[in-house]
Specification:
Protein name: Acetone carboxylase
Radius of gyration: 12 Å
Strand order of the largest sheet: 2-1-3
Largest sheet: 3 strands, antiparallel
Strand content: 15-25%
Order of helices and strands: EEHE
Shape: globular
Structural class: alpha+beta
Number of domains: 1
Length: about 80
């Protein structure tokens, strides 16, 4: 259930680590994205980012026109 209206897939509260390859830092940001070839327009997938990798991951998703929004992890729905 999407109580915040973000349309994002829920994330496991005990696994809030950065999605950057090899990084095990605590995630502070949720990068909401979707691949329009695979997902409906309202669907949002979530990558997690630490402060050090936020910009890099946003640029990676943005270069593919996948990035939609970045929010603090506290605003994400947790399972």
């Amino acid at each position: 259930m999407d109580v915040l209206g973000l349309g994002a897939d829920p994330v496991a509260a005990d696994e809030l680590v950065c999605s950057a390859k090899g990084c095990r830092a605590e995630a502070r940001w949720g990068l909401l994205w979707n691949n329009p070839r695979l997902h409906t327009p309202e669907r949002r997938k979530v990558w997690l980012a630490c402060d050090d990798h936020r910009e890099h991951l946003e640029q990676f998703l943005g270069a593919r026109s996948f990035w939609k929004q970045t929010v603090p992890v506290g605003e994400l729905e947790h399972v």
